[in-house]
Structures are given as structure tokens and as C-alpha cells.
Amino acid sequence: MATPTICAIASGIGGGIGIIRLSGRDVTSIAQRILRPWPDSPESHKLYYGQVVWPAPDRADGASTPTGTEAIDQVLFTLMRGTRSYTGEDVVEIHGHGGAITLRRILEACLSAGAEAAGPGEFTRRAFLAGKIDLTRAEAVASLLSAQSVQAARQAQRQLSGELGMRMTELRRQVTSLLGDLEGLLDFPDLDEDPAILRRCRERLVELATQLASLGQSFRRGGKALATGIELALLGRTNAGKSSLVNALSGSERVLVDARPGTTRDFVEVSAEWDGVPVTLIDTAGERSDKTELEEQGLRLGQRRYREADLALIVVDGKLGLGPDEQRLIATLPESLPHLLVWNKTDQRDCQPAPDGAVAVSALNGWGLRELRSRVLTELAGSVTAQDELLVTSARQAEGLQKAAGALQQAEQVLARGEATEMAAAELRIAQSRLREITGEDVSEAVLDAIFARFCVGK
Ligand SMILES: Nc1nc2c(ncn2[C@@H]2O[C@H](COP(=O)(O)OP(=O)(O)OP(=O)(O)O)[C@@H](O)[C@H]2O)c(=O)[nH]1
Ligand SMILES: [Mg+2]
User: Which of 47, 172, 233, 286 could be joined to 435 by an S-S link, Cβ 3.0–4.6 Å?
Assistant: First the structure.
């Protein structure tokens, strides 16, 4: 089945100018039916002035001659030949007036003339399938569109320019070269036993695994903060001041505070923004040993939510200090959830000194909140401010890098244990395939569907 020619509103609606984009092999014949006057032999990338009209019904001889049809809009339009277009197919862009009704009518004219409505990200998907961009650049397009801060946009631009894709290609080249060396050893069993050669291979494996892991971890060091923001769960004993802190940290009186313990039952999410990083504060029900059934339920609900958070703030009433409730809480945190002790109520005279590593604060008068914010940002977004560091901002890419690094570590251990070189080579092939998935040379339809579902229609 031939790939259909697609169309969509590619700009926002309601601006001065609105853009309709068409892409596909039948673009010229479709455009010819709705654009007047259509140039005899249109030049690629040249802007023409004309009208959009309703397409006339096809004549029996196949030619379409719209006559006496209603003009929908006065527009500028351009044809971009596939050799130099975004999608790698012939593209027509129609620049009309940006009103919602007008744009919708131009779109309807395109549909009646034979185009099909594009799905989310379909233009970019075609660009990827045509080999115009690799998958890291396609994902960068989505990141650029959803960027919430200058830093996020800057990282997306770097990825869009191909910097991340080139880094992946270089890392893969190194894996391939190592694999070549290992395969060479297989052909010469004497060398296979040579400790100096094996040591060198192991050193290179460790070095490469570290590079891959470090790039993958940049997601946690700041990439995720840029892409989707960070999530902080406030946990602790009842009355420790969790809700007071959520209000103080978000600059709003969003959640209930009360001197009686057990105030918060359901978990509550409150949004804030710290230094351009979107932050979600998750307030939870307090821990205590003699809890009611309702409090139990609330705690369970909260737990399910905060397992996914990036950092747990264990809020401690500084007057009472660390007790068994806090110890139990910390012991039951998922392994993937790091925590930070927040020593609250330091405004009180009989407050105990904060232990090493804890941040001393007072939700009541605001002491230490600036330091708390900066500790959290350093932990979860430390790399955001390092201007020259290239960050991975996609969970998919980060996971692929970690898996590739893991495979190289396995390979190194195989060699260290003196096992068959062939087994190490197999691990290197796994690493190669993980890296190919990231750039999209070896990727399933399901993964592509998931990636492009994040896009808007028209991009
Ligand atoms: N002096 C002092 N009092 C505080 C501070 N933070 C909170 N409080 C008080 O401690 C009490 C409990 O505060 P909440 O914020 O409701 O505590 P919580 O941890 O959310 O409590 P639960 O929802 O019951 O688990 C209130 O009376 C607050 O005014 C602080 O920094 N200093
Ligand atoms: Mg509370």
C-alpha cells in the first residue's frame, strides 16, 4: 500500500499566520487542486502568492479543474522537493491567516483533495524513516517543543544539532573496535592467553563502560529535571511539619497544617519552580505507631505514589530527633529512592542539633529553606548549570546507555575470570545493539509508536 500524503495544521491556532503542512508523493497533485494560481513548473523552496479554493470534483478524464469555487483564504505557499525537505518527501506549506475557522477550512480542503490527516509526530517520523535524522534528533524535536526553561531548550537544541547522536556513534565505534580485537583473539588462541593483551582489553572495557554509564547517569544528574521536572516526597512522623514545609517551599498555603497529629490523610501534590526547574512536592500522611485504619490506608496510597519520586525528604521534628518511626520509614524506602534528612523546627529553643548530612530548617520562619532548595537541586539537577555538559534527557536513552554499560562490565568480568573470550564478545554485541536502539538503527515499531505518541499533530 502506498504511503498516504498527510496534512495537518503545523502552527498554533489564532496567531497572525497559520501554517498547514502537507507531505507525501501526491503533494503536488493535491496542492494543484486547491491552490490558485498553481505555477506551471514550481521552483523548490520559493514562496508563491495565491488563494486556497475548495477542490472541484474530479472530471471523468482525470484532470481537475476547479471553476467557480469559493476562495477560502489568501495565502503564501511553497513547495519543498524531497531532496531538501524536513520529511524527505515532497512537502507543501501553506501560510494562511491564523484564525481557527480559516485554518480548519484549509485543512478540510486538503483532506477533500485527497490528503489524510497526519497522526502525532508523523512528519518527524517520516523524516526519521527517510534517514534525514536519527532517533536522538527526532526525540530532541519533542523536547524542544515541550521545553519549560531556557536550559531545557538549550539542551534540546544541542541534541537536535546531532551532538548526542554523534556521541553515540563514536561510543559505538569504540565498542565495535573492541569487539574486532576480541574476535581477532579468537582466531589466534595463543594471543588469547597473553595476559598483557587481555589486561589491555579489560582496561578499555572498564573505560568505555564508565563513559557510557556516566552519560546515562546524566539523566539523573539533570536530564530528567530538564525534561519532566523533579519529584520530592515529604515523609516523616505525624506533626513533623511536612505540610508546613510543602507550603513554605512552594510559596503557597496549599495544604492543611494543624497542631494536632494526623492532619494529612491523602497525599497531595503541589507544583513549584526552583531556578527554572519544575518541582512537584508530594505531601504525605505522617507515620506513627498507633495509627488508625484510615491513616494506614492513606499511608499505603502515598507509598504507591512516592515510590516513583526522585528524592525523599525525611522531615524530622528537631525537638524529638530521630526515632523508630523515622528508622522504619528509611528502612522501607525503595532502593531507587535516595533520601535527605530535613531537621525541622530549629527555631525552637530545645531543638536538638542536626546530625551530619541533614539540612536544618524552620518551616515556621523560613530558615534554611534556601539551602534545602540548593541541596536538592545540586543532587538532582547539578549538571543543569554545568553549561558545557551534554545531558541525556530521555529515560529511554538513559536506560539503553545503562544496559550497554552493564553488558561491557559483564564482558570485563568474563575476561577477569578467564572464561571464554567468545562470551565476552557476545556481551559486546549486546552493547552494540543497545546503542543501535538509541540512535534508532535497530528499533521496534512499538518503541517508535511510544516515542512519536508524545509529539503533537503537525510536527
Ligand atoms: N515552631 C515550629 N513549628 C512548626 C514548624 N513546622 C511546623 N510546625 C508546627 O507543627 C505542627 C504540625 O505541622 P504540620 O505541617 O501540620 O505537620 P505534618 O507533618 O504535616 O503533620 P501530619 O499531617 O499530621 O502528619 C503545626 O502546629 C505547625 O505550625 C517549625 O518549623 N517550627
Ligand atoms: Mg500534614
Answer: 172
Does 284 contact ligand 1 (Cβ within 6 A)?
no
Q: How many residues does the chain have?
A: 459
pLDDT-flagged residues of the chain (< 70): 1, 56-69, 190-193, 385-387
Confirm whether 193 is domain-assigned.
yes
User: Does 273 lie in the same domain as 209?
Assistant: no
State residue 360's pLDDT score. Answer: 98
> Please, are residues 456 and 12 in contact by the beta-carbon 8 Å criterion?
no
Tell me which residue of 366, 392, 381, 154 sits closest to 275, measured CA to CA: 381
Domain that holds residue 250: 230-367
Residues paired with 97 in a beta bridge:
17
Spatial contact of 396 and 168, defined as CB atoms under 8 Å apart: no
**Would residue 90 count as lying in a domain?**
yes
Atom 27, ligand 1: residue with shortest CA distance: 259
Clarify whether residues 206 and 282 are in a common domain: no
Are the C-beta atoms of residues 222 and 387 closer than 8 Å to each other?
Answer: no
pLDDT of residue 386: 66
Ligand nearest to the CA of 295: 1
List the shell of residues around ion ligand 2, using CB closer than 5 Å: 242-243, 263-264
Order the strands of the 311-317 sheet from edge to edge. 268-274, 277-283, 230-236, 311-317, 339-344, 359-360
Residue 146: CB atoms within 10 A of its CB come to 15
Residue 225 to residues 134, 140, 244, 292, 399, Cα–Cα distance (Å) = 24, 15, 24, 37, 16
Q: What is the pLDDT of residues 13-46, one digit of tens each?
A: 999 999 999 999 999 999 999 999 999 999 999 9
Region at 419 (left for phi over 0; alpha for psi -120 to 50; beta for the rest): beta
Q: Which three cell numbers stand for residue 166?
A: 554523534
